[in-house]
Structure formats: C-alpha cells, structure tokens
C-alpha cells in the first residue's frame, strides 16, 4: 500500500502542496467544512492553509490538519496497488471473479491503451451498475495517473459497493509496475 504523505503539513503550507500530497484533501475539506466546493468557498493554489481557515470562520488549524491526515489514511484503504490488481486479474483467469474495471479516462485514451476487459465509464454504465451489479464484486476504477479515481471510488463506496477500489497511480503506474508491455503515454497538458 502507498505510504502516507510525509510532508510538513502546517499553517503555512500552500494549498497546491497539500492537494499534491493528500489527493483526497479537497473532498475531505468540502465534506466537513464546505471549503473548496464552489466559487464562494474556493481557494488559490498559493493560498496557505492558515489563510483558508481564517476566512472560513477561523477554523482551528490543528483540527483541520488532523482531519486532512485522518482522511488521507482512510483514502489509503481504498487504493489497490498495481501488482495486487494484476494478481487478481491473473488469478481470476476469465472467471466470474474477474474484477470489474472502470476506465475514467477519455474515449481516445481508452481506445489507445486500456486494461484488458475494462469498460469506459459513462452515465449509462453507472446506471447499469446501480441497477444490476453485485455490491460485493471487486470494482476497480482507474484513470491516467490516479488523480481522479479516488473520488469516483469513494462515490461508489458511498452507494454501498463495498469492494470498490481506486488503482494507485492509474494506468501509468500499472504499466510501470505490473505490466511493462502496456504502452505508456503523456498528455500534452501534463508537466
């Protein structure tokens, strides 16, 4: 399992650094404090945690830091490592134990390279899952680098799909760590 972030998280930490090291922080801050979910409560990347807490009813910084860390530890439980997913796919060998793989990327990315037997996520697919999927089945969501799949997995978990996971590092980490034959790519807007 991925390590808990080891950055120095304090009042002067910029929001961009927090979000880069604690990917679920945006969701955690919005869920508990209604921070960052809309234009009236948004924050700038270079704004410090102290400034965000101050203009949101002077929230206690230590409490907010503890909430970010606790949420991050819970998020780690949702992640599945690339090697672990590869092992589960191999062990299923086409049986009904095969995890349901949901690709959150664009159609173009999915058509260029995808995990075997994965499905491109859509609203129609989501409705089909809600209507017919066994809530105990392993569902693994993935994107390119793991940035968005954690939120999507939390959404399905919140709807009772107890065995939902997010692929740590996305398809890029899977290609590096579990299947080097899988082509890697970089999007133009990525650094």
Describe the model:
The longest helix is centred in the middle third of the chain and has 18 residues, at 61-78. Strands 1-5-4-2-3 form a five-stranded parallel beta sheet. The protein has 191 residues and is α/β, with parallel strands linked by helices. The chain folds into two domains: 15-76, no CATH class; 81-177, 3-Layer(aba) Sandwich (Oxidized Rhodanese, domain 1). The protein is 45% helix and 8% strand. The relative contact order is 0.13.
What keyword list fits this structure?
single chain, 191 residues, Oxidized Rhodanese, domain 1, 5-stranded parallel β-sheet, disordered N terminus, alpha/beta
In short:
The protein is α/β, with parallel strands linked by helices.
Secondary-structure topology with pairs:
Layout: H1 15-21, H2 25-33, H3 49-54, H4 61-78, E1 79-80, H5 82-92, E2 100-103, H6 107-112, E3 119-120, H7 123-132, E4 139-142, H8 149-158, E5 164-167, H9 170-177
Parallel strand pairs: 1-5, 2-3, 2-4, 4-5
């Amino acid at each position: 399992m991925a390590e808990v972030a080891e950055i120095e998280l304090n009042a002067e930490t910029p929001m961009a650094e927090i979000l880069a090291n604690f990917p679920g922080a945006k969701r955690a801050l919005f869920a508990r404090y209604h921070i960052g979910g809309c234009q009236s409560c948004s924050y700038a990347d270079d704004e410090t945690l102290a400034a965000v807490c101050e203009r949101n009813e002077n929230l206690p910084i230590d409490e907010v830091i503890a909430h970010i860390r606790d949420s991050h530890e819970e998020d780690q439980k949702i992640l599945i490592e690339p090697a672990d997913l590869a092992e589960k796919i191999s062990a299923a060998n086409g049986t009904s134990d095969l995890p349901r793989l949901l690709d959150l990327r664009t159609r173009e990315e999915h058509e260029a390279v995808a995990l075997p037997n994965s499905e491109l996520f859509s609203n129609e697919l989501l409705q089909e899952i809600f209507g017919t999927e066994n809530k105990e089945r392993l569902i693994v969501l993935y994107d390119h680098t793991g940035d968005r799949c954690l939120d999507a997995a939390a959404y399905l978990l919140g709807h009772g799909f107890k065995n939902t996971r997010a692929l740590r590092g996305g398809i890029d980490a899977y290609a590096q760590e579990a299947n080097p034959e899988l082509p890697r790519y970089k999007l133009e807007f990525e650094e």
